[in-house]
Amino acid sequence: MTTFATTREILATPEQIFAAFTDPQRLERWWGPAGFTNTFTLCEFRPGGRWVYTMHGPNGGKHPNESVFAEIEPAARVVIRHVSSPRYRLTIGLAASPAGTTVSWEQVFEDSAFAERVRHIVVPANEQNLDRLAAEVKGVPGGA
Questions:
Q1: C-alpha dihedral, 94 to 95 to 98 to 101, nearest 10°
Q2: pLDDT tens for residues 74-122?
Q3: Structurally, how many domains does the chain consist of?
């Protein structure tokens, strides 16, 4: 397995950041890398709940996704299992810090060969996703 991990300080409380995950309308606005939009078919934000959506790329591509919310610990942790291809587990941790919240983002792919092939896409995309989350909690329309 191949793991991509990053952390980010966001100037908001863990509760404010967690709230950006709990509301499907907000999640739809900020989820994904820069330039992507989402259409949600299903968003059951609860442990074991399914999350079905299409990511629309800036080049017009449509990318169907299905995930399961594996673990949810309010204002502390969200674990998502991406059950459509490519399969991975994403763990998002929230820890209060003097500046707000340290957000940890760890994505573990099941197929290490695939992960190596997409490393050049995944690493910047994860940073962009955190940029959009930070913008969302600051109230910037569209998550920047």
A1: 0
A2: 999 999 999 999 999 999 999 999 999 999 999 999 999 999 999 999 9
A3: 1
CATH number of the CATH domain containing 84:
3.30.530.20
pLDDT value at position 139?
81
C-alpha R_g of the chain: 14
pLDDT digits (tens, 9 = 90+) for 39-58: 999 999 999 999 999 999 99
Preceding amide of 47 cis, omega within 30: no
Q: Are 128 and 140 in contact (CB under 8 A)?
A: no
Separation CA 2–CA 84 (nearest Å): 17
Domain range spanning residue 25? 2-139
Residue at 42 is within a domain: yes
List, as one string, the DSSP characters of 6-71.
EEEEESS-HHHHHHHHH-HHHHHHH-SSTT-EEEEEEE--STT-EEEEEEE-TTS-EEEEEEEEEE
